[in-house]
Specification:
By secondary structure, the chain is an all-alpha fold. Helix content is about 80%, strand content about 0%. It has one domain. Strands 1-2 form a two-stranded antiparallel ribbon. A hairpin with a 3-residue loop joins β1 and β2. α1 runs antiparallel to α2, α2 runs antiparallel to α3 and α3 packs antiparallel against α4.
Amino acid sequence: MAFDFKGCCCCCSLETGVLFIAIFELILGSMGLIYFVFSDYGFDNAGNILLVSAYISLPFVITTAGLLIFGVQNKRTAYIKVWIVFKLVLLPLLGFNAIVSFLIGYYISPLLFMAILIVILIVLYSYLILVVRSYYNVLTTSSVAVDDLEKRRSECTIPINQLQ
């Protein structure tokens, strides 16, 4: 593939990098959710739109980060794919938030700062998606990945001598 990486951030393996991404996202998502729950913004309706999108997306960010950790530790590609798909759905939401923040940011300076921060997040998430996708491709092309169907079949089979 054109954008398959051999490592994450040029210093660690893909598996370690993806695990670090998941743990870092789990911590930041939890901190962000706690911050948004206990903070009191004085924004107008546009600020409320951003808060609603944070309230909706952050629990999913935390959940998918947990699924990514589980998928990496157990070499389960289905859980890794859930993270990739969710991030691909989240990118347009971040883009929408950046546009809203930028348009309203001329009047409220924290929203302009938030728009710049969201654009940086879009670039960062694009890189993280490519790293996780590279790890997913490594797992799917190698025999290391646990095939869920084959594992379920082996767990459900009953030896013939036990049936009689």
